[in-house]
Amino acid sequence: MTDSLASAPTREAILEILDTVKDPEVPVLSVRELGIVRDVEIDASGAVTVTVTPTYSGCPAIQVIEDDILAALTAAGITRARVATSYAPAWTTDWIDSDARAKLKAYGIAPPGRAESGALVQLLRARKAPACPYCDSPHTEIRSEFGPTACKSVCWCRSCGQPFEEFKAI
Amino acid sequence: MSAPSVLPSPPPPPHDEMELLLRLGDDRLVLGHRLSEWCGHAPILEEDIALANVALDLLGQATMFLRRAGEVEGKGRDEDALAYWREAVEFRNCLLVEQPNGDFGFTIVRQFLFDVYAVVTLDALARSANAEIAAIATKSLKEAKYHVRHSGEWLLKLGDGTEESHRRAQRALDELWRFTPELFAPDDVAARLAAQGIGPDLPALRAQWDTLARDVVERATLTVPQNASHTPHLHGGRAGMHSEHLGHLLAELQIVARSHPGAKW
Q1: How many other CB atoms sit within 10 Å of the CB of residue B135?
Q2: B152 to chain A, minimum CA–CA distance in Å?
Q3: For residues B121 and B200, is the Cβ–Cβ distance under 8 A?
Q4: Nearest-neighbour CA in chain B from A7: distance (Å)
Q5: What are the pLDDT digits (tens) for B51-79?
Q6: Rg of chain A on CA atoms, in Å
Q7: What is the ipTM of this complex?
Q8: For the segment B108-123, what is each residue's pLDDT rounded down to a tens digit?
Q9: Residues of chain A contacting residue B127, judged by C-beta atoms under 8 Å apart
């Protein structure tokens, strides 16, 4: 057993490693940029706990993300690590910062608007369709609130004719 | 073993808390499975994707509630053990969610009635004295809100649509409304949990549900069945007494896990 000789990893080093772990469905954003990583703890013995929160409760990517986090830590020589899950506070797209939003747009996904909190039963969709991430036109429409992954809706640009995805605000 | 002589206001017996978690988890597991039966069969592609998305959210919520149920029980059962290895009489879902899909209108009406129930329930549980339940409810409520927007908009389109869509939506409402009193039927478990601030106050929920559901039904030009209060109300799901439909659903849901115990994929 030689790993007790290795110096304990620092929190900063762990966060840097987590910056390299991308969301499998949105590979331009890291799990930190998405706000999935909520905490990193290193106990006295050097064991690492990364706390994550799920985006959508049924998102199949969550298991992959947990595996990817452990794989990235292992590859950096950190073998005594585990991933814990926390549900509160509930994940919101408001945690995605402006740099990350710019990356989403460059990738062709319209970034999320502000998460709404309001009436329990809100009918007759009044929300505005997002600007086209390709040509910036505001003349767009939401084709379907549900898309290929839980986090995206499907839109269409009337100006350039390009269908595009929107990261839903939640 | 001797009990300590003084107990500081004891926590509720785990049985009640587990019962509540099973009710919440099983509603979502069973309805999520029903919706997944539409995969590849919905009337239009967007709707196929939408129903599959809602199904996935419900299965995710079921996972959180059932995982917690297993923790509270403390016998080493995880969410998979609870989903795949219980018999129909051990399921605590309401009868509404196990009803077969019928046509698209029937599925939408069933979904709308449940979605309104889900938002009022989760909104109340987000303030539960039980922190774990409050956390799961807060997370699930975000999803339930866009679920009810989806099913509610469809109800308006179908009810206030063509003569045929109106007729089918009304037929579904006539058939399904009688399953809704069960959602708010009081029992000892619910009463104890409400008294402790852990579970919702069912009469208050029912009033809230009634106002929200009737408002959309009326705007959809549909009619709440007049004789609803006279028809025999269907109860039993919360106590494990189910319609014959649940057994068939579980056979399909559980067959792979039971045929290949411990398999990983």
Answers
A1: 21
A2: 6
A3: yes
A4: 36
A5: 999 999 999 999 999 999 999 999 999 99
A6: 19
A7: 0.89
A8: 999 999 999 999 999 9
A9: none
Sheet containing strand A109-110, edge to edge, reads A109-110, A163-167, A152-157, A140-144
User: SS3 for A7?
Assistant: coil
Q: Are strands A152-157 and A140-144 parallel, antiparallel or unpaired?
A: antiparallel
* Separation between Cα atoms, residue B246 and residue B98, nearest integer Å: 6
Contacts 24+ apart (CB under 8 A), B66-69: B66/B21, B66/B22, B66/B25, B66/B26, B66/B29, B68/B21, B68/B132, B68/B133, B68/B136, B69/B18, B69/B21, B69/B22, B69/B25
Give dist(CA B139, CA B32) in Å, integer.
17
Q: Within an 8 Å CB–CB cutoff, is residue A127 touching chain B?
A: no
pLDDT > 90? residue B245 = yes
Q: Which two tokens stand for residue B6?
A: 């003084």
Query: Between vectors from CA B140 to CA B135 and to CA B142, what angle results, nearest 5°?
Result: 110
Residue A144 and residue B50: Cβ atoms within 8 Å? yes
Of B57, B149, B152, the CB nearest to A56: B57
Written as one letter, the residue type at B66 is: L
Q: Average pLDDT in the B144-170 region? A: 96
